[in-house]
Amino acid sequence: MGTFNIVVLPGDGIGPEVAAAGVSALKVIGEVYGHTFNFEEKRIGGIAIDTDNNPYPEDTDKACLAADAVLLGAVGGPKWDLGKMRPEQGLLAVRKSMGLFANLRPMEVKASQIHRSPLKREVVEGADMLIVRELTGGLYFGKQTRTEDTAIDECVYTVAEIERVARVAFEAARKRRNKVTSVDKANVIETSRLWRETVMKLHKAEYSDVELEHNLVDSMAMHLVTRPTAFDVIVTENMFGDILSDLASVLPGSIGLLGSASLGTSGKGLYEPIHGSAPDIAGKDLANPIGTLKSVAMLLRFSLNLLTEADALDAAIDAIVEKGVLTKDLGGTASGSQVSAAINDQIRAAATVAA
Ligand code: NAD
Ligand code: IPM
Ligand code: MN
């Protein structure tokens, strides 16, 4: 029986729809397992530009830093695309402020999902990987310079930044299938050469029991499609991880299925689906809430140490997917709120059976 303070950042587009599904699942878990979740909703992204002229207002930052965990929907949208201030800056700011350098993006193709994969059964069957994306360095946080005819994005990585995220990957691999694939562009880019060198040194010094391979990011994109079952833990820098995780996300059928946990040195984390604000379907109750609910399961597991509850939520999601209660992105006819309600009912039903 615990009491936990959760900050909710709904954001823009489908963000508020999927965040609401996350909150409702937590409420049900609170009822069923006797926990109290206190929710505090704060502004981030485009909506915060509109209200505060700042994509990451100070009171949002304060609340995030004080919370036990943060749940985020998504930010961005065409309304703010041409402005000088961008919603996405809010997301980068919360990641940096909370020191969340490791972004975990698990992707698994369950047996019941194979027929919805764009890949052939024999290629995709058994695919189960964890992408560990570096989240507070690289191009995203380098100095940006712009004159009328020239733009410069600086890409900086230090040994310490590479080491700490590689450590997360090696530790995760030890609890999985003991293999790490480090992805870089060491044939061209200097930060990638430092990346590879650092990962190799750390491996030799502390993790030689873990199988390690290195892949260049371009061929990695190809391998993810041609032999996705070859990978266990993938570790890579910020931008490569962003791109490769969208690619990997569709292997089970939709980007709407993938959640993520962003972690730092404190136990506190930020949990968000990997998809964006999907302006094309916003406000229509079409958004798949599963990516957010998978994120909530990680929130329970990693920040609140509620392992039974996390497993129960994961199991309820699987059961509802297997039953075929699906949103349109997965070929179904259910609305996002119907999927969310079905998962909540499943959590209650499973707990009644177990009692
Ligand atoms: P997107 O992920 O928002 O959408 C890509 C496609 O996937 C769209 O067709 C969309 O309808 C679909 N999709 C995404 N999530 C879905 C869900 N839950 N259920 C069903 N379908 C879903 O990517 P985009 O269109 O390139 O970006 C739109 C905006 O979102 C941009 O402003 C971008 O910067 C922002 N963005 C934000 C985040 C975030 O907040 N974490 C992540 C990615 C993109
Ligand atoms: C993500 C998004 C963000 C990123 C954008 C919106 C800043 O694409 O979370 O994957 O690139 O990190
Ligand atoms: Mn992305």
Automatic annotation (TrEMBL):
Q: Where is the Isopropylmalate dehydrogenase-like domain?
A: 5-343
The main place the protein resides is cytoplasm
Task: Note how many cofactor molecules are bound and how.
Answer: Binds 1 Mg(2+) or Mn(2+) ion per subunit.
SUPFAM superfamilies according to UniProt: Isocitrate/Isopropylmalate dehydrogenase-like
UniProt entry tagged with the keyword Glycoprotein:
no
Q: Which GO terms describe its molecular function?
A: 3-isopropylmalate dehydrogenase activity; magnesium ion binding; NAD binding
InterPro entries in the record, alphabetically?
A: IsoCit/isopropylmalate_DH_CS, IsoPropMal-DH-like_dom, Isopropylmalate_DH
Site positions (Important for catalysis) are: Y140, K185
Residues given in the record as substrate binding sites? R95, R105, R133, D218
Subcellular localization is given as: Cytoplasm
One Pfam family name is: Iso_dh
| Entry keyword set | Amino-acid biosynthesis, Branched-chain amino acid biosynthesis, Cytoplasm, Leucine biosynthesis, Magnesium, Manganese, Metal-binding, NAD, Oxidoreductase
Any one GO biological process:
L-leucine biosynthetic process
Q: Name one GO cellular component term.
A: cytosol
Q: Which cofactors does the annotated protein need, by name? A: Mn(2+); Mg(2+)
- Show the PANTHER family listed in the entry: 3-ISOPROPYLMALATE DEHYDROGENASE
UniProt similarity note: Belongs to the isocitrate and isopropylmalate dehydrogenases family. LeuB type 1 subfamily.
Role of this protein: Catalyzes the oxidation of 3-carboxy-2-hydroxy-4-methylpentanoate (3-isopropylmalate) to 3-carboxy-4-methyl-2-oxopentanoate. The product decarboxylates to 4-methyl-2 oxopentanoate.
Q: Assembly and interactions?
A: Homodimer.
HAMAP family, per this entry? LeuB_type1
Protein name (database record)? 3-isopropylmalate dehydrogenase
